[in-house]
Amino acid sequence: MTEVDMPHQVRNPQDHAPWWRRYGDVLTPALTTCVGLEAEATSLAAFEAQVVHGLLQTGEYARAVLQAVHPADSDARLADRVELRLVRQAVLERTQPPLRLHLVLDEAVLHRAVGGPVVMCDQLRHLSAMAERENVTVQVLRYRHGEHAGLAGSFGIFQLADALDPGVVYAESPAGVAYLDRPEDRAHFCELFARLAVSAAPPPASVDLIRTLADSWSSGLKDEG
Description:
The chain is of the alpha/beta class and 225 residues long. The chain has one domain (8-224): Endonuclease, Chain A. The chain is 44% helix and 17% strand. A hairpin with a 6-residue loop joins β4 (155-160) and β5. α6 runs antiparallel to α8.
């Protein structure tokens, strides 16, 4: 496996002043690469095993996730991380063809009480609303499926518009994020994602499940009240 080069806009900051440079205090090299790829990509196919994908997170959900990952952050630094995550979501609504996102979520993500019941209720309602967009597809990999092709962890496949640079894979692990651009790596992860998409519930059933679970979180709040 080889680590991919930085996208063009990130490699040449003197010639291009990408908007994300103002978040330099919270941008790691790996995150800089990710943000650049999101800006350049035409599509992203992603599997998430632990949390809702960052492009579909609400502010409070993002804050809870980032605070757990960066517990030593000051309030100001945490606020910058959250703002950056939310600003990145503009790629789904840009005037040029928006990023097409196909997300497969492990069902555990919908049950994990990130931020508490109020945050989860809002997050799942937001997720179901976003899944109605023409450029967003969400599928849920149900518990009952058992073992599956994503057990090694979360990953994503960026498809780029440049025919000479067809795509980049990111793969998450406890050691960090690896970016891979060898044809054999792309083929491997494309095959994994195809298997996950076949195994997961179809988009309409997935959205129905997300809405049901959002109602369940809301009912829990009423019971507590």
